[in-house]
Amino acid sequence: MEKSEAGRAIIIKNGTFITPFKKIEEGFLIVKAGRIAEVGVGQPTEITQAAEEIDARGLYVLPGFIDLHIHGGGGHDVMESSFSALNQISKVLVKEGVTSFLPTTITTSHEDLLTATQSVRKAMGRGTEGAEILGVHLEGPYLNTKRAGGQPKEFMRRPSIEEVKQYIRSSGGKVKILSLAPEIEGALGLIRFLDREGVVPAIAHSDASYEETLSATEAGLRHAAHTFNAMSEFYHREPGAVGAVLALDSITAEVIADGVHVHPASLKILIKCKGYEKVVVISDAIMGMGAPDGEYQLGGRTIIVQKGASRFKDGGIAGSAMSVGNGVKNLIRWLDLELPQIIQMATFNPARAIGEEGRKGSLEVGKDADIIICDQELSVKMAMVRGRVVHQESGGKTENMLI
């Protein structure tokens, strides 16, 4: 089957639609010019002539997942800084239901970060074949060596507004998130600068106290990278960075729901404290995601991906080998939440966290037609980006879904 062209109208009918704010049984959705033109119950009142039709009977129709924190996949790494690598990652992601993402850098030299941000800008201009790139997430280099995790300590340094200005310019103004340790010297000034520039300041790889994190939120900090991991833990006399993330409503919390980084009970605590509206499911995936088990690289170090876990040779966790789609499946098993609430954590919440909720993250009229069609186990049968079908599972019931 040829992939559809975004210029042709498409009608998706008979499916169960999760918008995610409501559930529509036996509904329909019309796509025109790459955007959602209508969503409703039953059959459309006017059938567009020459429209392609997708029969989604017995299937879920969802907004495409959005991954705000991903280092690689399909055997490729964001730090390869090439269109080929970013494009291949994008094609792996749509198979997992991710229709847009932020390529995420690691802590490295100034020159390498400039090259990486430039590559993201060029890839956005050229357009990827799979998931759409929305910008770049800079994880570091202004992190605390005490909480380095999988990040290279040798490149960690004090915050530099001048450096960040260059990253913003080289990305074409597309730096969406910068994750840093707010307790290090110069961090508060950088957070204020980022807030003025429309870049989301996030806490990551931090040994901050509760009070230091609170001061950072007053300066503009409003997001937390991979909550619980590589940050000062909660203790009843010193709540630490984790306690601040749990307690402060101003912070949106990322979480890696792979069962390796965070215990399911901790996920329940996070959602009880934050509410599902303030939680964002991420992958933090490295190049082994969507690829066979084996050895891969991250920041010049060897990683072993085995049985769904990604670790350094010494056993330390090194990113993940799962997709956001797999994280959503885990949350369905672990949490006592309705499906729309869980879907929101992978769609609308990440869109809102980076100011893209006006065009991404939900099945609403006027928004980009970023849509996935899944079976009852949330296995992706079809993925659409801006009205163009970029992935369709072959064989079985869905082989001729597009008619």
UniProtKB/TrEMBL annotation:
Keywords: Carbohydrate metabolism, Hydrolase, Metal-binding. The active site is at 284 (proton donor/acceptor). InterPro entries: Amidohydro-rel, GlcNAc_6-P_deAcase, Metal-dep_hydrolase_composite, Metal_Hydrolase. It catalyses: N-acetyl-D-glucosamine 6-phosphate + H2O = D-glucosamine 6-phosphate + acetate. GO terms for molecular function: metal ion binding; N-acetylglucosamine-6-phosphate deacetylase activity. It is an enzyme of class 3 (hydrolase). Its EC number is 3.5.1.25. GO terms for biological process: N-acetylglucosamine catabolic process. Its cofactor is a divalent metal cation. Residues 60-390 form the Amidohydrolase-related domain. Zn(2+) binds at residues 139, 205, 226. Binds 1 divalent metal cation per subunit. Pathway: Amino-sugar metabolism; N-acetylneuraminate degradation; D-fructose 6-phosphate from N-acetylneuraminate: step 4/5. Belongs to the metallo-dependent hydrolases superfamily. NagA family. PANTHER family: N-ACETYLGLUCOSAMINE-6-PHOSPHATE DEACETYLASE. This is N-acetylglucosamine-6-phosphate deacetylase.
